Sequence to fold (388 residues):
Amino acid sequence: MKYLWFAVLLATLQVAYLQDVPPFSEECRDDMYPPKPETKVPTYVVNLDLDPKDRWSKLVVDKQADLKYMLKVIKNLTSSVFDGKLFAFVDKYFKDIVAGLPAPYGDEIVGMATATGLPLGEVVLYNVFYELFTMCTSIIGEDSNGKLYHARNLDFGLLLGWDSRNNTWWLTEALRPLVVNVDYQRGGKTVYQAVHFAGYIGVLTGIKPNVFTVSMNERFNIDGGYIGFIEWVLGERDAKWIGFITRDALETSESYSGALDLLTQSKVLAPAYFILGGNQTGEAVVITRDREKTDDVWHMKDTGHPFFILETNYDHWKAPLFIDDRRTPATKCMNKLTQENIGIPGIFNVLSTKPMLNKLTAYTALMQVNSGHLETYIRYCSDPCWPF
Fold:
């Protein structure tokens, strides 16, 4: 047994060493923007004036084949759970969760299931997944004129099926075709925009033009989203789902301070980091949440590099996990970029540098609040590339 533990330790140290040397890391990129046009994601309009059951029909019907394939991948990856009967359990019991969801989310999920013919329980499961498995790097940078840019890599699929033949994650590969931008409109005018995986109604990345931008990163915690979800199923319904509270902020908050209040004061289903940017110089924070309360609000002016703030998946006052340190190279590249070069191209290049770009990276989103600008690109990390 002691030799087994020695082998595990040796392998772990080797992994940690490789992460910080070429080709798994690299010098800060300055040549990645603009990306190839074919990687830019399409934009769909969600009309908030429609009945919630009808809002998503066009999008999910267009993406129906990709949705079914993605659910097939999840089924394959979970085939050993409950002796292969997980999805029978999901189809039987998860559909009952919809009745307890706050408006309009339950009706939207029902509408998606109806439009696609997918089992209601499986659509619910798909929406639960994002409460539990998201890894990310989010950055807000301020240029020399006080204009704020907010960008993020969304990394998804860790431990959900490694394809050793192609050196890819099964679920990440299945999710990329589902990435879309959504323009939420009321009365024919944009209210807010967000990046979605088709079929998921919560928001992980969003912008309310000329008001604020927001992204959500997962926070690892033993009292995590699994516990919150189980409590919610058992009847404790006072916590907000992570993707729903972010969308609620975009829907209802009319100011940066209003969004800050909502995201800091509400009970949430899972621990998380909310990265929030406003429309005025200096308005950028990382909100560190556990399920019951806010543990910390970290302002850009307090970071030691007053023109940017960034968050991966670790508390900023603690060292990141030694085999998953994206914070150090991201900080290095932002400092090398300098405030004079803050903008869409510069931050995209930072997020295109390994290991910020890795095998889990599904998309990069870029936002500028004053102009209401959102552009999103599907991302791939060619070999050699770090798995996460």
User: Anything to note?
Assistant: The chain has a mean pLDDT of 91.
